[in-house]
Design brief:
homodimer; alpha/beta; FAD/NAD(P)-binding domain; 4 domains; 5-stranded parallel β-sheet; 25% strand
């Protein structure tokens, strides 16, 4: 068996290592265009920012290790420029010498990755305008950053934001421009608001719903013109507006591509040619929840796919379950994370869904240092199956999203979340964990015990006539409330029922939803038509930032 | 409906709150023997140690809240002394006035909790010898601690250890005595070793396999005599050797008790009397995994049970799924946690099991601040179903145990753990999360790709003839290795196969198991009889501390 792997980062390196473990006999040739196979690309922003000091640390599996330990034939700085499927050979070009040669394969794994997209902006090829893909990009950016006073980042996705954090950490005045009306476009907008606020408070200039129309170069550096008319002088531009699959080789070889350019594969990561597999950021796989085609450039799935491709090549019945899209970003000590479907994805798919918000502490409130978080969970109104979740806040967000990611993988429902038994000691959680709370809120809605309305629904015509009822204390009410709300503290509610209308629906709310829930129960049992505002005033504030 | 609840802490308070949400009409009377219903008992050690400064913070739901918000009839400092099942009344005694009276009920929920066990040691009733159950105990201990220079703690369970940490934090010389040969008896011994080391390094004197035979009082304070012969002068003794269910009321009422004294209940938390429910630390429930009877005094299950009892009383089809035993303790910044079955529990039950060890970083090793942990997972050799897991280390242990707790709840297998997609950014995890790694190790064993032996098996006669092979570098080998091991680095292994015996089994190992796995694969494919030592030298060291 001769296995040729094109691309030596996450997917390719995983495939190579797994292949060697499955076969000592196989000849395994690994081609890598860059100088370093298997580098930690998720660490690049932190290397640029100086958080990761040693460049060596980013070399997860140095060449010597791949050669000595895994007995791989590693060819770096070598680009594969053609595949001859009939002859089962590839053509490689040594980038140092220009030499071209052919290499035969029995099985071929494509793991070429994805390249940063460069929008057709005049000036985008100027010196000082960068993208970030590999270690040599990072080296260049690190050097440039050291000399820069001002930076402009185009693109408010995870990498753009991580770069913004790191540049600010270097004392660079940083402006971030994003075409959408929110940062982190995969997340629902309201969930991004706490991070947006954090970025602003750290001095990052955010320009949402804006874009770059032109970049020019002058004596004092670069000038960036925005669609909004603004002009920004800068020393450095980072373009980080997503990636495109490296599909040229596959396309030239006649392998089918998806609509967005990803190499199409089956559940064994096989392309239409059974001797050619493809893995990682270059492929179109399918969504774990919806089974719809998807392209998600994440390291975890790339690693799994590489492993699976090797498994299948060596006769294992391995099947890819689809990509769940679990992702996380840490910025200035805050965290945003998601798994499964966002609400906007569900809406795009026309998928019926409900959603629950909670705003719990990450551990028992009575123990010092509790940080708050917001969790939003989507679930099926039919059977309560969990469709997705998002979290934002401080410590412990990653844990709750991981727990829900596991629940989704297992096909659990919101009713199961009521019952799961998680770690509780005051430093780690609560006797009713935030995940249990999500289960309570969603199950209550589905059982009809706890009818809820969402902030975005509140503004629809259905609810325009409703009486909004703030059941917090007068003091909380005075500090800020939903317009036109009536204030009756939940503790006085039973005595003041006569003040409430019986001829129109009531929407109760409190700070996070708990007291509003009790108020809803009280009013329901007294014959009122009532719903609770999901997540209370805290959620409302995420939709209506001050 | 008149609902009477006896005991106002976790289970009772949860039942009362849930009952009120389900019924505005119900008359709900809550009896509490102490002064404070619904206090945070898991916070008491931290209140004594001063970590939690405000006593008020421990009052999770003060009386006024229960009265005003939940419209409960709360009667504190009132002990229920008898149940008349035929008449459906209870007899209550006001502890302040001595007044006794009867109260009728339609439904009764017993949530009396458990009392600290006091072993029959001469002197155990002396002033200065304490147990810790409620806020008044905590108040007494807090005051005494302030005046104490030396303390002796009997019992190395979670509470004893938390108290040790807090007393040491107050500058008190602390000795901890435990009858077993390990601290934290619910955990497997090797998993407790890193915590044991931490305690010792913080100056706590540990006396394992020892006990107190007598406590005497003299002019200079207390004297504690140990079975080992040692005598310790001390100012304070805390007895923390487990709890006993408060079952007197139930027993007098003729309600069946389990072998260990817990009130027996069905899956609706009903006792043999359908009008009497029991919840919390006083009940015998069943284990989620084995369906065997169990008594687990934990706050999470108590809360769930309280909620379920109320649900069932008000006509919901709620069923308790059993207690999974998820528990955690944080000590000096280290964490130990478990969920499901420990290995000793599996052995006690005669349950066939396999186990996997991993020693990963809590986040990407290339990002600064990575802390290591040890995870041990038990699984079924038949179908790979996860039976239990334990973790010990620094940050991120709680997350992994919570993920596995969720997987257990869902009935997932080790093969599922290979596939779950968890959060990865360098600050939070790795592209192959520690939980995925557990999946790889266990699945490899079950598929036959990665035969393993455990440290404790290594010492059995089956393996006494085996050639132990250390595949780490000579430098690592020189720093410490398993006796009689041969050292051939994995990177040289293919060239040095002739040095290895073909007439007896080989046990490979490395530092944590990864290189040993590759070595096993290499040797297997070259026809050797070989197994990998699960978790490598790091696991071996946990069984053979320096």
């Amino acid at each position: 068996m001769k296995l040729v792997i094109i691309g030596g980062v996450a997917g390719g390196a995983s495939a190579a290592a797994r292949a060697r473990r499955l076969s000592e006999d196989a000849e395994i040739v690994l081609f890598e265009r860059g100088s370093d196979p298997s580098f930690a690309n998720c660490g690049l922003p932190y290397y640029i920012g100086g958080e990761i000091r040693e460049r060596n640390k980013l070399l997860v599996a140095p060449i010597e290790l791949l050669v000595n330990r895994l007995a791989l034939d590693v060819r770096v700085r070598t680009e594969v420029i053609a595949i001859d499927r009939a002859a089962k050979t590839i053509t490689a070009r040594n980038l140092a010498t220009g030499e071209e040669y052919q290499e035969a394969y029995d099985k071929l794994i494509l793991s070429p990755g994805a390249r940063p997209f460069k929008p057709p902006i005049p000036g985008i090829e100027l010196p000082g305008v960068h993208t970030l893909r590999d270690l040599s990009d990072a080296d260049r950016l690190q050097e440039l950053a050291r000399k820069s006073r001002r930076a402009v980042i185009l693109g408010g996705g995870f990498i753009g934001l991580e770069m913004a954090e790191n540049l600010v950490g270097l004392g660079i005045e940083t402006t971030l421009i994003e075409l959408a009306d929110q940062i982190m476009p995969p997340l629902d907008r309201e969930i991004t608001m706490p991070i947006q606020r954090e970025l602003t408070s750290r001095g990052i200039e955010l320009k949402l719903s804006d874009s770059i129309t032109e970049i020019t170069s002058g004596e004092t550096g670069l000038r960036v013109k925005l669609k909004s008319g603004l002009e920004l002088p800068t020393d450095l531009v980072l373009v980080s507006v997503g990636v495109r699959p490296e599909n040229q080789l596959a396309e030239q070889a006649g392998l089918p591509l998806g609509k967005r350019g990803g190499i199409q594969v089956n559940e064994h990561m096989q392309t239409s040619d059974p001797d050619i597999y493809a893995v990682g950021d270059a492929v179109e796989t399918y969504d774990f929840m919806t089974l719809q085609p998807t392209q998600v450039p994440l390291a975890g799935p790339a690693n799994r796919q590489g492993r699976l491709a090797a498994d299948h090549i060596f006769g294992r019945e391995a099947r890819y379950r689809g990509t769940q899209g679990t992702a996380i970003v840490g910025l200035f000590g805050k965290t945003a994370a998601m798994t499964g479907l966002s609400e906007k994805a569900a809406q795009r798919l026309g998928l019926e869904h409900k959603c629950a918000y909670v705003h719990p502490n990450h551990h028992a409130g009575y123990y010092p240092g509790a940080e708050t978080m917001t969790l939003k969970m989507l679930y099926s109104p039919q059977d309560g199956r969990i469709l997705g979740a998002q979290g934002v806040g401080g410590a412990g967000v990653d844990k709750r999203i991981d727990v829900i990611a596991t629940a989704i993988q297992a096909g659990l429902t919101v009713f199961d979340l009521e019952e799961i038994e998680l770690c509780y000691a005051p430093q780690f959680g609560s006797a009713k964990d935030p995940v249990n709370m999500l289960g309570f809120v969603a199950s209550g809605e589905l059982r009809g015990d706890h009818p809820q309305v969402r902030v975005d629904q509140l503004e629809s015509s259905t609810w325009s006539e409703a009486q909004v009822l703030d059941v917090r204390t007068p003091r909380e009410f005075a500090a800020g409330h939903i317009p036109h709300a009536l204030n009756i503290s939940v503790d006085e509610l039973r005595q003041r029922l006569t003040e409430l209308p019986r001829d129109k629906p009531i929407v109760t709310y409190c700070q996070v939803g708990m007291r509003g829930y009790l108020a809803t129960r009280i009013l329901l049992q007294h014959g009122f038509s009532v719903v609770n505002l999901s997540g209370g005033y805290t959620t409302w504030r995420m939709f209506h930032p001050a």
